[in-house]
Prior knowledge:
By secondary structure, the chain is of the alpha/beta class.
Amino acid sequence: MNVIVTGANRGIGLELVRQLIARGDRVEAACRQPGEARDLQATGARLHAVDVADGASVAAFAHALAERPIDLVINNAGVFGGMRQRMQDFDFDAATHAFEINALGALRVSQAFLPHLRRGTGKKIAYLSSVLGAVGQTNAPDHLVYRMSKAALNMIARSIAFELHDDRILSIAVHPGWVRTDMGGPNAPTTASEAARSILGQIDAATFADSGELVDTKGAHLVW
């Protein structure tokens, strides 16, 4: 299987690449500075310097793969959005940057690789999202930037599911839970390796009954 993973240099993205390579998939791994990503270099994936917030960078990535079929795109690249995330102390510049990466970046990548997905056999797009973007489950005022950007990402995943239905391309958002990464912090209960294993399990098992849904690592459809 030919797979694209964005944000592949650390955390969940790096573990996704490792596990995909280990099971025999061919991985195109994207991050902003692959030359500095020593752990990623050791995986055996093909590396690409990509900034998902830059349309020209994403277009160059797609051009580099030419006519290659792609079976799965995993939109993993994401940022937290800074420390000022309440209405009374809000960092608009950080919020704009977060939207460019967390939401619009995923849309750019999905759009750029649509021709490649049409040539593939797996035909799946996965978005690493969060239950923090679930409007119906929001019960606290914290993490406003992150919540908004992930809510937008959930809508992208759902809307694309309808748009690409006739192409038989599945679109799914996955909530990995609270994961022990640079973003999640050291107290999170789930390791990046465990999260990656569960995420890939859900992506592999996903059918068109799941397309457009936000699912957790047990496959439950989350109300968002």
